[in-house]
Amino acid sequence: MALVTMKEILQHAEKNTYAVGAYAGSDLISAIAAIKAAEETKTPIILLEEFSLVFDDDISLELHFAAINAMAEAAHVPVATVLDHGVSYEDCVRAIRLGCTSVMYDGSSLPMEENIRITKAVVEAAHPAGVSVEAEIGHVGGDEGGATASGAEVDESQYSTPEEAVYFAEQTGVDALAVAIGTVHGTFKGTPKLDINRLQEIKKAVGTLPLVLHGGSGLSVEQFRLAIANGINKINIFTSSERAGALSAKKLLDNEGEYLVTFDQIARDAIPDMQKDVMRHIEMFQTPSIMNF
User: Fold this and answer.
1) What digits encode the pLDDT tens for the residues 25-76?
2) What's the maximum distance between 2 C-alpha atoms anywhere in the chain?
3) Exactly one of 27, 56, 84, 143 is catalytic; which is it?
4) Residue 84 appears among annotated catalytic residues
5) How far apart are CA 177 and CA 90, in angstroms?
6) What's the total number of domains in the chain?
7) What residue spans of 17-111 are helical by DSSP H?
8) For residue 131, what are the CA distances in angstroms to 31, 75, 108?
9) What CATH number does the domain containing 276 carry?
10) Which residues, in sequence order, are CB contacts of 49 under 8 Å at separation 6+?
11) Strand (E) positions, the chain?
12) What is the distance between the alpha carbons of residues 248 and 30, in angstroms, rounded to a whole number?
């Protein structure tokens, strides 16, 4: 099936009312685990790339994306790569040049009109190159890429509204829209509670535009499936699978004996645990086989 765009995957998901998970791909071990999970379950998958979690220098970035793209091309399932939380127009253009099939510009902390202005510019750069675009309105709690042990709380004043969603979509022409309805980046402090009524209103307002849920780690099966039934087509999972890899490494180091634990052993042993976590979410999302893609 090889490398495809996020738009291709999500259009099918929206039409058939299901969700596809987007998992950590900012390092090759995480990407291998996610692709292995998708291949075993025969489901499409999205890999999240984030510059702040990869490398600072151009050579390393080019090598990383060349490897990720080659892995996706060799896969037997549809694989999309998306720049996650691009913080500027320049970052998004850089990701396009590196071969990402999709980019997400995050202007959610900006005033609405500024968010629209930059997102529209990203769309105008991406679409002629065959690259799809995701954007975000409202604000998801927690620190992106920096989960805390105490967890993060939601801020209902930062939730997305149906009026903002339809206006933003019409003004920008994005291919997918991330909305804030009660999730956080990292881990939850307390019990998560999604505003499904708000989600229903947003979906009704934007029609067939695929909606995205960021900060999915920690939700229950019932919450995931309720969100999917009411319009969510892409769910970002980062902390859960990355934590599975970290706990695998901790187990190795805690039980170190006569032979020293080396990084290659940590990486090799982490893949099965991370793969299992991705497969667990694929099952929760009830993502269908590519036989139906």
Assistant:
1) 889 999 999 999 999 999 999 999 987 766 678 888 899 999 999 999 999 9
2) 63
3) 84
4) yes
5) 20
6) 1
7) 28-41, 58-74, 89-98
8) 20, 20, 21
9) 3.20.20.70
10) 25, 26, 65, 68, 81, 82, 83, 84, 95, 100
11) 3-4, 20-24, 45-49, 79-86, 102-105, 132-136, 176-178, 211-213, 232-237
12) 13
User: Which of 104, 174, 90 is closest to 144 using CA atoms?
Assistant: 104
Domain assignment of residue 133, given as a range: 3-292
pLDDT tens per residue, range 181-190: 887 744 454 5
Give whole-number Cα distances, 224 to 36, 119, 193, 232, in Å: 22, 28, 11, 9
Give 221's strand partners. Answer: none
Residue 235 has which token pair?
A: 């769910």
The pair of three-digit structure tokens given for residue 144, joined into one six-digit string: 């992106």
Measured at the CA of 184, the angle between CA 284 and CA 231, to 5 degrees, comes to 50
Distances (CA, A) of 260 to 191, 222, 257, 274: 40, 43, 7, 23
Distance CA 79, CA 137 (A): 25
pTM for the whole thing?
Answer: 0.88
Q: Which amino acid would we find at residue 211?
A: L
CB 220 within 8 A of CB 30: no
